[in-house]
Design brief:
homodimer; about 100 residues; 6 helices
Amino acid sequence: MDYNSMCPKYEAAAEMLGKKWTGLIIRVLLGGPKRFKDIKTQIPEISDRVLTERMKELEDYCVIQRNVYPEKPVRIEYILTEKGKELTPVITAIQTWSEKWMD
Amino acid sequence: MDYNSMCPKYEAAAEMLGKKWTGLIIRVLLGGPKRFKDIKTQIPEISDRVLTERMKELEDYCVIQRNVYPEKPVRIEYILTEKGKELTPVITAIQTWSEKWMD
């Protein structure tokens, strides 16, 4: 196994996934397009500041996409990209493992 | 989906996996029992201080076990526990996703 060549991409992904709330935000978005306030409703403990920060990070990673609909009032929705949707097996695996093993 | 009930265990697992070198250390140990210096040889970029810290954390999580053999000189080996071995699908899923999607 070539540990060094697999390292940087793996580490970047693990670091992204390891940030608090990231997994939960992705799981909420697996349920379909959501507005900021919809996500807040499903994760009430998260602050506006931290949710804004996480959404920006996930957008920078191209894991989510921010769609602006020029209605009145303007509607902004977040959806998972293909890259984001393909995190499903990762999140499921962490979920399964943590349910079994974490106290 | 009950987001709140699944949250703390998931977050703890994701945080553990998100620490730099953790995934790589687990992958090295998937190859069998290793001494500290064996791990260093396979991950030359890691410092002694950080590797010691990570090994202690993984031991506290019961993901690895530290075995001391009273030989002369004393031999200390690290192995994955069952809990650690069952991280294989998690690490494989992160690996697969990151190879495909991370730059």
